[in-house]
Design a protein that fits this description.
This protein has five helices and 14 strands. With 236 residues, the protein is α+β, with helices and mostly antiparallel strands. The strands form three sheets. Strands 8-9-10-11-12-14-13 form a seven-stranded mixed β-sheet. Strands 2, 3, 4, 5 and 6 form a five-stranded antiparallel β-sheet that branches.
Length: 236
């Protein structure tokens, strides 16, 4: 676990910069441009995880840290940890299709969980509607808004692999607070059940999905569905 800083074959460093769910203010965007020029940045690269990578000389790293912090941003994280939260432009100001404010929820989850140690890297994705622009079904913990402060949760997905895996829906109709509480439970179970460097989908394949589902009464209104296809946390 550590910062998202990678030595390139050219000798330069690639440094990931994290904003809140990939959203930048005009002042932050302008400030990053000024910072890139001041640091002799060779390239700026947008990533699929909504981070921005600066390719800079190695001796300018501490200047980059200071400049990023001054803009209210931070150097990204990498390794056996919860990664930065990937969320769509999901609120009334950013997307006409948004059913709930996933930008706000994503910020809450990032503030609480990002950089938390995990057995292997752990990725979270939120989508504001069924279109799933952020690929929540290919994340370890995927969240899809189905209404105002109402979400479905998917567990155990994996993208960016030769063998991608779709996540399984484990909860429906829960609130943002329920999403947060359920994530805390899942991470504790993952710590307890996983082997070192074992991705969540592989832990689920080894011990079974049931080992990751909370007991009845864990969240107010929890009840299993009769078809046992997924679990419902109603009334949260």
């Amino acid at each position: 676990m550590g910062d998202a800083i990678f030595k390139q074959r050219s000798g330069y460093l690639g440094v990931g910069i994290v904003a809140r769910c990939g959203i930048l203010t005009p002042d932050q965007l302008a400030g990053l441009g000024d910072l890139a020029r001041a640091l002799d940045c060779q390239y700026c690269k947008l990533t699929t995880r909504q981070t921005l990578i600066f390719i800079i000389p190695e001796d300018r790293l501490e200047d980059l840290r200071a400049g990023v912090t001054a803009l209210g941003l931070q150097v990204g994280v990498f390794g056996e940890i919860v990664r930065n939260i990937k969320a769509c432009a999901g609120n009334k100001d950013l997307c006409q299709r948004s059913l709930s404010d996933v930008f706000e929820l994503g910020g809450v989850l990032q503030d609480r969980f990002m950089n938390r140690p995990t057995p292997c890297d752990f990725k979270i994705a939120l989508a504001g509607c069924h279109r799933g622009c952020t690929d929540p079904q290919c994340a370890d913990y995927g969240i899809i808004a189905t209404g105002k402060d109402t979400y479905d949760v998917y567990l155990g997905g994996r993208g960016g692999s030769r063998k991608p895996i779709h996540a399984t829906r484990i909860a429906t109709g829960i609130t943002g607070k329920g999403v947060e509480d359920l994530l805390a439970w899942i991470l504790e179970r993952y710590d307890a059940l996983a082997e070192p460097r074992e991705r969540l989908c592989n832990t689920i394949a080894r011990v079974g999905l049931e080992a990751f589902l909370p007991p009845e009464g864990f969240l107010e209104g929890y009840r299993p569905r009769e078809d046992n296809d997924f679990l419902t946390f109603a009334g949260l």
